[in-house]
Amino acid sequence: MRIAHLFALTLLASAAAPAQQPALADGEPETIVVTGQRLQDFRDALARCLARNCPPNEDADATLALAEALFLNGVYAEAHAAVRASIDRNRGQARNYPEPVSDLYRANTRLSRHIGLDREARTSAFEILNSLQAGIPQEDHRHFTALLEIAEIQMLSGNFAGARRELTRLARAARAVGREDVAIIAELRDRWYELIAAPGSTSAMSDLIEWSRRTEPAQRMRATGARLLLARVYRSEGDNARADALLAEIGRTTRMSAARRLLSAPRYQLLQYDVNRFEGEPTGSNVLNRVTENYEGKWIDVGFWILPNGRVSGLELLRSGANPGWADPLLGSIRGRLYSEGSEATYRMERYTMTAGFDTTTGSRIQRRGPGARVEMLDLTANAPDTPPPTQ
Question: Helix, strand or coil for residue 275?
């Protein structure tokens, strides 16, 4: 699987669950195989491609394969450098190779977010769409996904108005070509963004409540989406009974997708630990209020099962970079998640990176990490190893 797919948003489709394999014998160490080739094999493949002046699509494929392998092994800087170099080589090829070039920008958007290069991530997100428009004038699902990505990056950057503007643009473009389903996704996400920007927004809540009550077949997708969002709101407010009633209504009236939707998760606060120079005892402080000097290697891969009732089971720390102690509150939150119900247990594997954006100090061109530490997540489920289902 190429990194363009690994980094793509799962907005219009969902990945299949991995196959099962027998459990390991007691005491036998488990080996997680992330890639069947050495990193140098990927480097060599790209070098051979460039040596023969391979076309842009082959350049992009070899670059993205290398970048994916590097990312999965925690080598973020080299992965980012490889993608940036390929973009430099192929930025003028979007007219003839719109999808390969847009894939490069998509990978760069995700890599940049994990590294903390937020401005570069925003620029690359817009270039995904620009590349597609250069070579594919007629808007289709590829353009729609790109618009959703732009809306998401705007939201992550705190530009709520810009995010909602892109969603309005998407809904209009989708309806123009008869994609009412995409328009509904855009409108549901717009109301969710409004609630994030203004918790308790009466206009957003009023729309979701009205949509949740629709019963006509053509509005089933809108009604189901509205009920799911309302269930998240009610659960966050502690009104579990109301949330459960909505989910039960979905179960009675809707054939749910195989994709398991996250309904709620406990809040958590990351801690940054320093050694007290006087007493030698570790002391915790809120990482959001401090500047962390070094984010190198601050990543973890976790795997867990979502049981049919939506609860999390068998959470494991599969791999990590530097000391993963920073992630303890995050792991506690994952254990407390609630997903939508399903007919069978499903497995998920996720990458989390602790990072922070770069700021330019006044009077200097030197970029330094800002104090706003955060966690970036990427779904690695399609790369997950075969894992036996839980016994409970």
Answer: strand
Summarize pLDDT for 210-256 with one digit per residue, the tens: 999 999 989 999 999 999 999 999 988 989 899 989 888 887 776 65
CA 323 to chain centre: 23
Question: Which is nearest to 35 in space by CA: 302, 386, 385?
Answer: 385
State both tokens at 241: 């009974």
| CA dist list (Å): 6 to 46, 87, 248 | 19, 18, 33
Those residues with Cβ within 8 angstroms of residue 269's Cβ, 6 or more apart along the chain or in another chain: 286, 287, 288, 329
Tell me how far apart the alpha carbons of residues 169 and 147 are, in angstroms, rounded to a whole number. Answer: 8
Helices 56-72 and 76-90 pack at an angle, to 10 degrees, of 170
Q: pLDDT digit string (tens) for 154-208?
A: 999 899 999 999 999 999 999 999 999 999 999 999 999 999 999 989 999 999 9
Tokens of residue 256, six digits: 């749910």
Buried b / exposed e along 176-195 (16+ C-beta atoms within 10 A): eeebeebbbbbbbbbbbbbb
**43: Cβ contacts below 8 Å, ≥ 6 apart:** 66
What pTM was computed for the model? Answer: 0.82
Count Cα neighbours of 249 within 13 Å in the Cβ-side half-sphere.
Answer: 19
Beta carbons within 8 Å of 17's beta carbon, 6+ residues apart = 258, 346, 347, 381
